[in-house]
Description:
About 35% of the residues lie in helices and about 15% in strands. With about 150 residues, it is α+β, with helices and mostly antiparallel strands. The chain folds into two domains: about 5-115, HIT family, subunit A (2-Layer Sandwich); about 120-145.
Amino acid sequence: MQDCIFCRIIRGELPATRIHEDNDAIVFMDIGPVVKGHLLVIPKEHYANLEETPAAVLAKLIALVQKIAAAQKKALRTDGVNIMQSNGRAAGQVVDHIHFHVIPRFLSDGHHWNWKAQKYADSGEMQALADKIKGILSGASSQQSG
Ligand code: AMP
Ligand code: ZN
């Protein structure tokens, strides 16, 4: 991907503060940390988002995320971690090269997610949405088995 900024970082055309590189992935500091020490874990191969990324690539990535979060915890003496992964503009995705955010958390960091829990009008509204998703899932599994 010629113009993708993360591909350009991988190729060394743009600077980044790297903390890890292997055959499949790199990890570097996010230049706009939500909390200082915020890292990005990305595959070397370009995939735009979760939907496009093969499950085998995702499996390696999430295992690396786990390892990186453990190193971050030990190094920065964190109290917690948020793993974030956004898909689509509506979800806040800005860079269309799949990435996992590894955001260190401290009891004193002062950060709060803008997480506003809503309420369903009634149990029927919730059940209708559940049924829609279940319908697609069972269709997909019968396609796989058939
Ligand atoms: P997202 O909103 O999930 O697409 O996240 C993109 C992230 O990439 C943001 O947190 C940015 O701060 C970060 N970012 C963008 N450009 C760079 C760069 N050149 N080096 C490091 N991080 C970057
Ligand atoms: Zn890319």
